[in-house]
# Entry
Amino acid sequence: MYFEYGNREKEYLSKKDPKLGLLIDHIGHIKREVNPDIYSSIVHQIVSQQISSGARDTIWARFEERLGEVELDSVLSLSEEEIQTLGISNRKAKYILDFSTKVREGVVNLGKLQYMEDKEVIESLCQVKGIGPWTAQMTLIFSMQRPDVISYGDFAIRKGMMLVYGLKELSEKEFIRITSAYSPHSTVASLYLWEASRGNLPEVLKSSDY
# Structure
């Protein structure tokens, strides 16, 4: 399953922001996988915290090889030490087990998240140890497919923006000013900025004179 968007979102963003429009035309349609299972998606986002995408994919493959499916009962069948053998730090192993225990005990009700506004989802998830705004925002995007999410806390998004707009630095104030034009399709803009962070830019945007 991929994040769903189409010409309507692309045309809106291109009209609102010509530079982003150039990037969208250059890259074309992006297929980014999403996981509708909120529990395993959050575990995946905890694993992903502050590591490269390559390391994340390697560790996640070990999870899937060990457990088959990364689901509540299978994760809770592992000890903290067993989780660490998959390449997870001690800190993240504690976070994963603490989150899983809270879900099992009903302290965290994942079913209610679907009915909350984005801000409420973030506030709710951030009450769990090891889950901060970035993890919650990535859950909104890659599990819940919320359409208007962009994260200042995501290094790759900031890097992509700096490349697209020719910036040497990017304050949060400037980030908010630029991204205000993206709403209500900020998530699609995020997909393209992630691609830009890898250097996937049209030649015209590589020129500092543009």
